[in-house]
Amino acid sequence: MSSTLMIDGPNPTTERAQAIADAGGLENALENGVLPSPVTMSLAEALVLGLLKQGVRKYLAIFGHGSTEIGEVLRVFEAAGLTRTFQFRNEVAMAHAATALSWIYGEIPAVVTSIGPGALQAMAGSLVASSNGVGVYHLYGDETTHGEGYNMQQVPKPSQGAFGMIAGLLNRSYTLHTPEALREALRQGIATVHHPAKPGPFTMMMPINTQPQPVTLSLDALPVPAPLPPLAPADDHPFEDALALIRGASRIAIKAGGGARNYADQVRGLAERIGATVVLSPGSTGVLPDAHAQNMHVGGSKGSISGNYAMAEAELLIVIGSRAVCQSDCSGIGYPKVRDVINVNLDVDDVRHYNRTLALQGDIGAVLDRLNALIDGRPIDIDARKQAWLADCAAKKAEWHAFKQERFAVLPPIDEVWQRRVLTQPQAIKTAADFAKSVGALKLFDAGDVQANGFQIVEDDTPFETVTEAGASYMGFAASALMAGAIADTPRPAIAFTGDGSFLMNPQILVDAVAHGLKATIVIFDNRRMAAISALQTAQYGADFRTNDAVAVDYVRLGSAISGVLALNGGDTSDSLRAALDQAHAHDGLSVIHVPVYAGADPLGDMGAHGQWNVGNWVADMQIAYRDTTI
After folding, report:
1. Among 408, 495, 522, 626, which residue's Cβ finds the most Cβ atoms within 10 Å?
2. Which of 500, 550, 556 minimizes the C-alpha distance to 530?
3. Cα(18)–Cα(519) distance, rounded to whole angstroms?
4. Contact 458/517 with Cβ under 8 angstroms?
C-alpha cells in the first residue's frame, strides 16, 4: 500500500473557492472577473462549479473509493461556505431524503455514492423521484474508462459502461467519459431535472480516472436553466370545443392528479363554474378543501364511496394533471359511462392517454385560466340536470362521511396478536392526522396499509399538507424523507406515518436524525404484518400467506438505544396516543411513537376498498372490462 501523499504549497481549488465566497457567489465572481477565463481545474471541481451555477448547494453523500476525488472538492467548498454535504448511512434512504428535499422544499440537491452496490441502491431509491416527477441529481462513481482490468465493485462482465446502461434504463443518464463531456452532461441534466412537464432524476456516472483529470474551460459557458414561459394552445378552437362538451354534459367529473396541486385555485374555479364534482388522486388531497361540497375525495382502486361513484357515473371526464396510474383510474375501467374526455396536461403522452380525448396541451395554470375566462364570458347554466348530479354526488359524500365516522367510533376488536383491544388503523391514523393538522405539521405517508388507509382518512384543505408516495409505493420512504427537514433552508414540522414493515426497511433514520439535528416525529403503526397484502390475499384467495411472522420487536427500546431519540409508547387509546404526540412535538429532536394496531377480519377495522384493480385472480375480469371500454 502506498503512503498518503501530503501536498505542500497553495491549493488552487481552495483559492478558487475562497475567491468565489469573497465575491458573494459564483455569478458575482464571474461578473467581476475574479476568476480567470478559461481556467484549468479537475473535472470533479468543474462538476461542482457547474452544479453550483445551477443553484445546487447541498449534497447527500456516502463516499467510497469511487468518489474520493469529488469528496475532496466538496470538503474544500464546504470550508469556504459554498456548499454543504450531509453524510448518510444507506443509499436508498439518502435518495428518499434528496427526493423529499426537492419535492417538498423546492431545493434541488445532488446524491453522491461510490461505485457498485451503493450506486445501485441509490438508483433503486431514485424510482420515487422518477415516478412522482421530481428533479434531483445523482452522481455515482464508475469504473475507469481505460479498461485496465476489473475495477472493484463494477458489474463483473466484459461490457462497456454496464452501470451507465443500467442507469440509462431507469432514468436519463450520462457518463463523464472525458472531462470535456461536462458541458453536455450539465445541459442534459438541466433538461431532465428542470423539465417543465415531467422532471426527474438525472444520473451522472463519474469514472474513477476522469474525476481528477484536468479540464480547461470557460465557466461562463457552463449552462444554467432558462426560464420557460407557460404555454397554452395558440388559438381558441380547442377551448370552444371544450366549452361545447361542458355545456352539453350533465354529469361532469374532474380528475385532479398530482399535476393539479400547484393550480388548486384554478381547479376549484372551473368546478364551481361548470357544476362538476372533483375526484382526487392519492397524491392530490387538498386541491379542493376537504369540506367543499364538490370534493368527492379520492377515487381509484382503493378510493372512497363518493369518489368512485363520481367516476363510475360521469359522462364527461376532465383530466387535470394526472398520468392515469392503475390505482387512480381502476386499471383503465374506472369511467364506464364516460363518452368524452377533456385532458389538461403538459406532457404529450399523458394528455393523449384516453381515447375520445380533446387534448388541451400546455401549462395547466395557463390552460385553466383561459378556459375559466372563456366561461366567464359565456357562463354555464347549472341547470336542473347538473344540479341533480351534484345532489347525487353529495348524497354519496354523506354516505362516505358516515362510513368513516362509524370506523372512527367503533369499539376496537380484540386483536389476535396483541391479545387485547388496540386501536384500529383508521382510529390511530385519524388521531395522528388530526394532531398534525392542529400543529401545522406535514404528514408523510409510507407505502402499504398505512398509506392506503391514510389517503382515505386525511382531511386536507390545501395541497402538500400530505405527501404520500403513491408513485412507486416505496416502503421506507416516509421516515427517510423526514431527513429533508434537517437539510432544508426553511424546514416544516413533520410526522412520518409508517407501518412496522416499512420502518424496518430504513431504520437508520434513528442515527442520521441525531447526527444532523432533525426535529420530527415517526409514528409506527404496528400490526405485525404486511396488512395491505394480507387483506388482498384474503379477498382474492380466502387466506393470507407469508405476510406476517411471530417475531416481536420492542420499538420503544430500539429507539431508546439511540442517544437523542425520544421513544414513546402510544398506548391503546386515542387519548394515550394524543398525549404521546404532544410529548413528541415538544421534544427538540427525533421522536418515535409505537402504536399497536388491529389487523384482522373485522371490516370495521379497516377503511376497505371501493374500486377495481388489475391484480391476482381479478385480472381476467378486469381485462375483459378494459376490452369493452370506449375511452
Report:
1. 522
2. 500
3. 32
4. no
